[in-house]
Each structure stands twice: as structure tokens, then as C-alpha cells.
Design brief:
about 500 residues; Immunoglobulin-like; alpha/beta; TIM Barrel
């Protein structure tokens, strides 16, 4: 039976500093076991420690003080200084544990403890690039996309001459819609040796974690890679491989560990393609966009997608790349959005600080966060939400979308209401959300066969109980009225 799963994202290098009462420079071993026990009690089955791997400190001064980044630092941390800039965790030197967070032994001990609780450990895999001064440039230059002097002369922002002894010209990593990331070097997915190195890297990670979150996973797809780097690939006489890297890679890794989890950060409507190639879960950014725009018909349509696609989708209202939910949505809308993402199919991602109402979107290059007070309103809300959704009904229940109907002929606010039910054995839950800025009314049709003449609706979200006549609900529907961004979670 498929189980509803939650994942908790932690910005490891920054988060560890919260435990400096234990140690001046805390590492993974200094995190109290009670911290992990608390996450397990909230219903988390995965923890993603973002930013575990070794980076190159010597590149920080050259690549982490661009005007745009400096502006971001100032917005996030008003009293920042140069020592706070520790470089991007996505500019990886090599897949070894960063001494800033601990040792390999500490990581393995943590994995063992998390597994004993029933939590799987997820770590980063960045397929597209490494650090611009990765030691692999010397040991395995064939891993990277090389170019000629002509490319460098025409586009010195995308191409660079390596400082390492071979003095070769390479491409920086990039997304085709944005300028190249200056602190990175591009992996060449049309080179068979490069593919094998990346597969071997992942094979090694199967002993250190239970799965990987693959950064910008779609960039390694053959068509995307060819469209991004066509000219350079022609110069190097590289041909498009017959098979997709992910198909070969995931199949290979799963032979070592069939339970190893692949999570793909994905955009551009390529989520289904990545799932088809073997990804267990892919990002659902489209749902977030529709939630932010308050487009209820599109949200409803989106949630009616094919079952397997939904089960493999990761729903979220914030992460380290996105604006904090309380800033992008406000408190009440973010609560309604959290109820949606927590009670639909698929995995739900929660970002460290989301549960306390943090407002600061921290640039990944910063190693220190501002001090923020918890928002008691959101702390209480999320505690309640986790208590509700940790039950077997939400973990194992059968999910079904419902269609609210007008409560009277001229009423149109019913279109602002989202509703679904979840059944598990004899237990039933009805979730109703008014995802709009006005009061909304509707009626909902319920199957009440074998119910007594009067039945009880217990709103376990708002601690209210209602009694309704069964015949009336069967004949006319259950009347609902909700204020802006308000919700019910009924047990009935």
C-alpha cells in the first residue's frame, strides 16, 4: 500500500550553528537525538541535509562577491561580513563530507540513528556541474565540457581557462535560460567516461545516504543538453547518446540498492519524463505557481492529474530556492496552502523555518542566518496540522477529489472552494478549503449510506462539532461557508 510521505529540508551548514551551546563549532554529532525524535513524531519519513559536501573555500573571494549577490546578502542579513560568506553548497569540490559539518563517520552514525527511527537520509547530488576548481579537473578532465580559445574569446562569461596545471578551456555550468554560474564547471553528458564517473559517484553515495535530491535534474536530458551546448558539442565531435543518462544511471544504482530514492528538481514540464526514466519523486513547482496566483480552477485541474504522476510529485510552499511562504503569501494564505499540500497525493516538503514562520530567504552562499522570533500562530497551526496528518488515514487512505456545487442558484463563490475526501478502513476525512479572499459558500455531495438519521461532523482542525440530518445532506448536499483562506478538516 502506498504511503504518504513528508520530507524536511535543512540548510545544514547554517542550521548546525544553532547548537553552538554544545560546541563552539558544532558538527553533526552535536545535534541532540531529541531533535530527530521530534521530527519523527511530526510524521517525517525523510530528512534532506542540504549542503553536506566539500566545497573550495579558495574560490569564495573570486566568485561570491558579485554585486547581485552582495545585494542579496544585505537584504537577508543586515550585519553580514565577509566571514559570513562560505560559498555555494552547489559548487562541489568532491563528494566527501565537508569538515564544516563533520566527518564521514558522523554522517554514517547519523544515518544509522535516523534509520532506527524510521527516517531516511537524503543528500544532494548535483549532476550538472562541480566547483570551478574541483580537484577532479586534474584527475579526471574528461568529466568536463572543454572548449577552444575561440569560444573563450567570444564568450568569456560562459567559458574560462582553468587555473589548474592543464590550463585547458572549459565551460561553466549553466541553465540555458540564465547566465552561467561562474563558480562552477560543466559536466559533459555526451562523454561516456563522464557518465561512468557520475554513475560511480552515485554508487558510492548509496552507502552514505538513503537517497539523493538531484539538483536541476532535467539539465542532463539529451535534448536539453544538446540545445544548451550544441556549438561546443559539435566542436568536440560529441554525438548524442542513444540512451538517457538517468535511465542508465538509476537502473544501475537500483541494482545496488533497490530502495535508494531519487528526487528530481524539475521544471519546464519535464517532470513526467524524469519519472518515466526512473525518478521516484519530482518537484511540483507548477502547483506552487498556481497556489500563489490563487487560481482555484487550475489548482483543481492540476490535482486531477494521472494517479502515478501525483504520487511521485513533491508538493511545497517554500524551499531554499523560493521566497518564504509568509512573505510570498501572508500568514492565512500560507496556512491554507499548507493544508492543501499536506493532504493531497504525493510527498510534501517542509523547509526548515517554515513551521516557525521565518521570513528570511537566505542566499545559499551565506553561513549565518539572522535571529528571528517564532510566530506563535504558525507554530500552533503546524503542530495541529502534523497531529492531524500523522494518522493512518492520511498516510494510507484513498484520496478522492470532490466537486463543490452552488449553495443557491446565483451563488458563484463555490468555485473558490477546493474539497476532497480520504477514506481508510472505516475512517473518513473531508478536507474543504476556501482558497480566495472572500467569504465562500457551497454544498458538497457525500455518500452517507448506512449512516444514522443524524450524524456528527467533527472539525478536527478548528475544534468544533456539528450535527446534521443525513437525509438533508443526501438530498441537498452538505452546506459549507468559509471565510477567506479558511479550512475545515472533518472527521465524519
Amino acid at each position: 500500500m502506498e504511503k504518504k510521505k513528508n520530507i524536511y529540508e535543512i540548510n545544514t551548514r547554517v542550521w548546525l550553528k544553532r547548537f553552538n551551546s554544545v560546541n563552539e563549532k558544532p558538527t553533526l554529532k552535536d545535534v541532540p537525538k531529541e531533535y530527530w525524535q521530534n521530527l519523527y513524531a511530526k510524521g517525517f519519513s525523510f530528512v534532506w541535509l542540504m549542503g553536506i559536501w566539500k566545497t573550495n573555500e579558495n574560490i569564495i573571494k573570486d566568485y561570491c562577491f558579485e554585486p547581485g549577490l552582495i545585494s542579496e546578502y544585505g537584504r537577508a542579513l543586515k550585519d553580514w561580513n565577509e566571514k559570513d560568506v562560505i560559498g555555494s553548497p552547489y559548487s562541489i569540490d568532491i563528494y566527501e563530507v565537508n569538515p564544516l559539518v563533520g566527518t564521514k563517520e558522523e554522517l554514517l552514525d547519523l544515518k544509522q540513528y535516523l534509520n532506527s527511527l524510521g527516517i531516511k537520509l537524503i543528500l544532494d547530488f548535483v549532476p550538472n556541474h562541480f566547483s570551478v576548481e574541483s580537484q577532479l579537473i586534474e584527475t579526471n578532465p574528461e568529466l568536463f565540457l572543454s572548449a577552444s580559445e575561440d569560444f573563450l574569446q567570444r564568450n568569456s562569461y560562459t567559458f574560462f581557462r582553468s587555473k589548474l596545471p592543464n590550463n585547458k578551456i572549459f565551460a561553466h555550468g549553466r541553465d540555458p535560460f540564465f547566465p552561467a554560474w561562474q563558480d562552477t564547471i560543466q559536466v559533459n553528458y555526451f562523454n561516456e567516461n563522464a557518465r561512468q564517473i557520475m554513475i560511480e559517484t552515485l554508487n558510492n553515495l548509496t552507502t552514505m545516504c538513503d537517497g539523493v535530491r538531484c539538483d536541476m535534474a532535467m539539465l542532463a536530458l539529451n535534448n536539453i543538453f544538446e540545445n544548451t551546448w550544441g556549438g561546443v558539442l559539435s566542436y568536440g565531435n560529441y554525438k548524442k547518446p542513444e540512451k538517457e543518462f538517468w535511465e542508465i544511471c538509476i537502473s544501475n544504482v537500483k541494482k545496488l540498492r533497490n530502495d535508494f530514492v531519487f528526487i528530481g528538481e524539475a521544471y519546464w514540464d519535464l517532470e513526467w519524463e524524469l519519472q518515466r526514466l526512473g525518478f521516484d519523486f519530482t518537484y511540483d513547482k507548477k502547483l506552487l505557481d498556481r497556489i500563489r496566483s490563487e487560481n482555484v480552477p487550475e489548482i483543481r485541474s492540476h490535482l486531477m492529474a494521472e494517479h502515478d504522476f501525483q504520487q511521485k510529485s513533491i508538493r511545497f510552499i517554500e524551499n531554499h530556492d523560493e521566497e518564504r511562504a509568509v512573505i510570498s503569501m501572508g500568514i492565512e494564505k500560507s496556512k491554507a496552502a499548507a493544508i492543501i499540500t499536506s493532504t493531497v497525493k504525493g510527498m510534501t516538503l517542509f523547509h526548515d523555518g517554515q513551521l516557525e514562520g521565518r521570513k528570511t530567504k537566505l542566499p545559499v552562499q551565506l553561513g549565518r542566518e539572522p535571529i528571528e522570533k517564532d510566530n506563535p500562530n504558525l507554530v500552533e497551526f503546524y503542530d495541529k496540522l502534523f497531529r492531524i496528518t500523522s494518522s493512518e488515514v492520511f498516510k494510507y487512505g484513498k484520496w478522492e477529489m470532490l466537486n463543490p456545487i452552488p449553495s443557491w442558484e446565483t451563488n458563484r463563490t463555490y468555485q473558490n472552494i477546493l474539497a476532497w475526501k480520504i477514506n481508510y478502513e472505516e475512517r473518513k476525512r473531508l478536507i474543504v478549503v476556501n482558497f480566495s479572499r472572500e467569504v465562500a459558500q457551497c454544498k458538497i455531495e457525500l455518500n452517507l449510506i448506512n449512516y444514522p438519521s443524524k450524524f456528527k461532523l467533527k472539525d478536527i482542525l478548528n475544534y468544533k462539532t456539528y450535527f446534521r440530518k443525513t437525509d438533508e445532506v443526501i438530498n441537498e448536499g452538505l452546506f459549507i461557508e468559509l471565510g477567506p483562506f479558511k479550512s475545515h478538516i472533518f472527521s465524519y
